Automatic annotation (TrEMBL):
The lineage of its organism: Eukaryota, Viridiplantae, Streptophyta, Embryophyta, Tracheophyta. The keyword Plastid does not apply. Residues 18-37 are annotated as: Disordered. This is O-fucosyltransferase family protein. GO terms for biological process: fucose metabolic process. GO terms for molecular function: glycosyltransferase activity. Residues 18-36 have a biased composition (Basic residues). It holds the Pfam family O-FucT.
Length: 602
């Protein structure tokens, strides 16, 4: 690969050997190519190149990633960008350039020639000139070397080129503003305090809940159940993790969480028992009988609702089931100490089993030593599973066949929302404009490159089955080849014990992401919210990136935005989106930002 100095010098040496009739054609050709380059390096063009890398995208994607790399791109760097692209004039052979080069040298430094007419006076002048040029060359060389050590992108003639990275910018892996905040966790249990809880047989009664959904939705339900038991001064029966149709998992509470620690840590807050009391003989009635179920709890209900409407029935029946229980407790309409208790459950009482913690620590250790020495790593939570793509009702890059199959899938799964499908295109555009669509792997790759993360970045991917498979992952993998999952970090034998339960595998992803140096979310959801919230609560020194999808959508759709402008927009926009504690406001999600009720000034 030629450097800019070599290009400049080569053009000066060979310039006088071009025929004058080619100069006009060369100027016109460069004008056309500069115009095309200006468009070629827009984020939108970059996304088009990335999206064409997968064979699943039809005939447009027939060229392989290797073939695509032959085209100049600010994202996939190669030496073609630096070559002389002017094909409007005949190229000189290497021998012609070689002869031309030495003829120029002899004209400037005649003492190098064997011509006997060479004079001693001319030799001294030429020798001084040669020394001067050598010193200037050394200064230029060290100046260029210093620039190459920069971790940022560099430009030539308006084209973004790759600068080899010698030392990374520390802010890539550290939260640059963490030192400016003075918040600390303050929801932990106060040791040595006296419990004022009544005995189990003197509480208002027993409540029982089904924790529905995936692992993280279940986690939130458990935290809410403890809070509701506290509000009503009731005894909580250990929650059941419900096996729903989507997850089809037979996991029990004790298969994931440390029950003894859970009960002991909360002993001064809420009475918790492992099972339904023995005096209640018909346990099946608790699961099926409407007489034992409270079903009219609204979403985000205030604490007063439970006191006025649920507590009397608990006192009457002594044991009541609450279902459904997803998001059945509000945030701003409950006392601060109740929200603080929810944080206590989430960040301190709910601990995974020791074997899950140990396996997660092993995966983290392997991520940090993939290069042979200690290295930071990024955790990326991709939300581009078939179910998520379908539920979002957003448009995505794909063939007509893929889009037709997705339309059939949406019509089958969500017929009320689908209707006749005529309104979906406008809905998809509006949702993408508002930043409510999941980021595609290729879009994530462009954003990370704009944030100046190098190609060598070690990335742990936490995701379900990506819609489109390896073809859809190809753009991200081409730009960041060091992508790994838990299945690639651990052997089948090591993961065999965790495959019995889907939630056990999800717990491994959760912990590896939680302990990463940088966490990147690509869409909403309980997983990302809980990760970012925990990292905020535990010290907010680790960077958590939440992309501004609305702004990114606007930039991706602008064919006239240059790459340098796009990079500047990404960097400036995300300077403050790094996971620092934020002041909360009504209805703010407690799980993503636990500052006000659960953190206090240091």
């Amino acid at each position: 690969m030629w450097t800019s100095i070599e290009l400049s010098f080569h053009s000066q040496v060979t310039y006088h050997h071009h025929h004058q009739r080619h100069q006009l054609r060369k100027a016109e050709s460069k004008k056309r190519k500069l115009s095309s380059r200006k468009l070629a390096y827009s984020p939108k063009r970059a996304m088009v190149e990335l999206r064409h890398s997968g064979s699943s995208l039809g005939s447009r994607a027939s060229s392989s990633p290797m073939k695509r790399d032959e085209d100049a791109s600010p994202l996939i760097f190669n030496d073609h960008v630096l070559r002389d692209d002017d094909d409007d004039h005949p190229r000189h052979s290497f021998r012609d350039r070689y002869s031309s080069f030495w003829s120029q040298i002899y004209s400037f430094f005649p003492f190098l020639n064997d011509d006997p007419r060479f004079s001693q006076h001319g030799s001294r002048i030429s020798l001084l000139l040669l020394v001067f040029i050598a010193v200037a060359g050394l200064i230029s060389f060290f100046s260029i070397l210093q620039r190459l050590n920069s971790p940022y992108l560099c430009k030539k003639d308006g084209i973004v080129l790759h600068c080899p990275r010698v030392k990374e910018n520390p802010s890539l892996w550290e939260n640059p503003f963490s030192a400016t905040t003075s918040w600390k966790p303050c929801a932990e249990r106060r040791d040595g305090g006296m419990s004022d809880l009544p005995p189990e047989n003197e509480t208002s009664g027993y409540i029982f809940i089904h924790a529905e959904g995936g692992l993280n939705q279940q986690r939130i339900a458990i935290c809410n159940a403890v809070a509701v038991a506290k509000i009503m001064n009731a005894t909580l029966i250990l929650p059941v993790l419900k096996q729903d149709q989507i997850w089809k998992d037979q996991t029990k509470f004790e298969d994931i969480f440390d029950v003894d620690h859970f009960i002991d840590y909360l002993k001064d807050d809420v009475r918790i028992v492992r099972d339904i009391p023995g005096w209640f003989t018909d346990k099946s009635e608790l699961f099926t009988s409407i007489r034992r179920t409270v079903k009219n709890i609204p979403k985000y209900a205030p604490a007063q609702f439970y006191i006025d409407n649920v507590l009397p029935r608990v006192k009457e029946k002594k044991i009541m089931a609450l279902k459904p229980f997803v998001d059945r407790l509000g945030y701003d309409n409950v006392p601060p100490e109740i929200n603080r208790l929810r944080c206590r459950v989430n960040y301190h009482a709910l601990k995974f089993l020791p074997e899950i913690e140990e396996m997660a620590n092993l995966l983290v250790s392997r991520m940090r030593n993939r290069t042979g020495s200690s290295n930071p790593y990024m955790a990326l939570h991709l939300r581009f599973e078939k179910g998520m793509v379908g539920l979002s009702f957003c448009d995505f890059v794909g063939t007509r066949e893929e889009k037709a199959k997705m339309a059939e899938y949406r019509q089958k799964e969500w017929p009320r929302r689908y209707k006749n499908g005529s309104h979906l295109w406008q809905l998809a555009l509006q949702k993408r404009k508002e930043g409510r669509c999941p980021l595609e792997p290729g879009e994530v790759a462009v954003i990370l490159r704009a944030m100046v993360y190098p190609k060598e970045t070690q990335i742990y991917v936490a995701s379900g089955q990506v819609y489109g498979g390896q073809n859809r992952m190809a753009p991200l993998r081409n730009m960041f080849p060091n992508l790994v999952t838990k299945e690639e970090l651990a052997s089948k034998e090591e993961l065999a014990g965790f495959r019995k339960h889907v939630t056990s595998l999800a717990a491994l992803d959760f912990l590896v992401c939680l302990k990463s140096d940088v966490f990147v979310m690509t869409h909403g959801g309980n997983f990302a919210k809980l990760i970012i919230g925990a990292r905020r609560y535990m010290g907010h020194r680790q960077k958590s990136i939440k992309p501004d999808k609305g702004l990114m959508s606007k930039s991706f759709g602008d064919p006239y935005m240059g790459w340098a402008t796009f990079v500047e927009d990404v960097v400036v926009t995300h300077q403050t989106r790094t996971g620092l504690p934020e002041e909360t406001f009504p209805n703010y999600d407690l799980w993503e930002n636990p500052l006000t009720p659960c953190m206090c000034k240091a």
